[in-house]
Amino acid sequence: GAVVSQHPSRVICKSGTSVKIECRSLDFQATTMFWYRQFPKQSLMLMATSNEGSKATYEQGVEKDKFLINHASLTLSTLTVTSAHPEDSSFYICSARGLTSTDTQYFGPGTRLTVL
Amino acid sequence: DQQVKQNSPSLSVQEGRISILNCDYTNSMFDYFLWYKKYPAEGPTFLISISSIKDKNEDGRFTVFLNKSAKHLSLHIVPSQPGDSAVYFCAASVDSSYKLIFGSGTRLLVRP
């Protein structure tokens, strides 16, 4: 099946720093990638949708200047958490949808962000 | 307002028996439904999906049933195995937007 990777799997940073998370589709080209976050024991909440070569579409309540998304190629999307604060600590998961696939999204393994 | 609801936070079943996980939705525009399985600190793994033009889809031990009039879908796992123990999320999407709206998940425990 389709494989999506994320890097890093875990990151700890100081408050005020920026953190970049990469999401790659390894064996297929992804026209659309999605970024989710999950708080403990809660559902996955969609943050933004990114299409290759265009600006990301953010969900209501998600600050686009704080969560910068770049989808520069059909296999790579990045999420940068700028000026991270402890409340940004969460589990961030990306997913990717291929060129010819159905509505199935394939998820990455997630990135655990801890902001001290 | 939750558009996709999983009202049972947890479910415990005996190995070999049937596991039934339920999901309700409120948005009648949803036309594609999926089930994902998730282990702690990992991303969700796709299990099975169903289009709104169908009422049943089967894949091995997993069967998804869709009742559009009741806005209800369920995932049946038969027979349940200890390795099935995980959190199960149902998700729905509208038209061609491909945005998935997730339920809150049900933690399944299959007892040996």
Describe the structure.
The complex is a heterodimer of chains A (116) and B (112). With 116 residues, chain A is an all-beta fold. Chain A contains no helices and 11 strands. Chain A has strands at 4-7, 10-13, 19-25, 30-38, 44-51, 57-58, 67-73, 76-81, 90-98, 106-107, 111-115. In chain A, a hairpin with a 5-residue loop joins strand 5 and strand 6. Chain A starts with a strand and ends with a strand. In chain A, 38% of the residues are buried. The model of chain A has no long low-confidence stretch (mean pLDDT 90). The relative contact order of chain B is 0.34. Chain B is mainly beta and 112 residues long. The mean pLDDT of chain B is 93. Chain B starts with a strand and ends with a strand. Chain B has strands spanning 4-5, 10-14, 19-25, 30-38, 45-51, 56-59, 62-67, 72-77, 86-94, 101-102, 106-111. Chain A binds chain B through residues 1, 4, 6, 32, 34, 42-46, 49, 91, 93, 95, 97, 102-110, 112, and chain B through 32, 34, 36, 41-46, 49, 89, 93, 98-105.
Would you kindly provide a brief summary of this structure?
The complex is a heterodimer of chains A (116) and B (112). Chain A has 116 residues and is an all-beta fold.
Structural key phrases:
heterodimer, A: about 120 residues, mainly beta, 7-stranded mixed beta sheet, 4-stranded antiparallel beta sheet, 11 strands, globular, B: about 110 residues, 6-stranded mixed beta sheet, 5-stranded antiparallel beta sheet, about 0% helix
| Cα gyration radius of chain A (Å) | 13 Å
In the predicted model, the low-confidence regions of chain A spanning at least 5 consecutive residues are none
Query: What's the end-to-end separation of chain B, in Å?
Result: 38 Å
In what range is the share of β-strand residues of chain B? over 45%
Summed over residues and divided by their number, the pLDDT of chain B gives a mean of 93
**Helical coverage of chain A, percent range:** under 10%
Q: Which H/E pattern describes the elements of chain B? A: EEEEEEEEEEE
Q: Shape of chain B from CA axes?
A: globular
What's the oligomerization state? heterodimer
Largest sheet of chain B: 6 strands, mixed
- Helix segment count of chain A? 0
Overall strand count of chain B = 11
- Distance N to C terminus of chain A: 37 Å
Biggest sheet details of chain A? 7 strands, mixed
Number of helices of chain B: 0
Q: Beta fraction of the residues of chain A?
A: over 45%
Radius of gyration of chain B: 13 Å
Shape of chain A: globular
Mean pLDDT of chain A: 90
H-E order of chain A: EEEEEEEEEEE
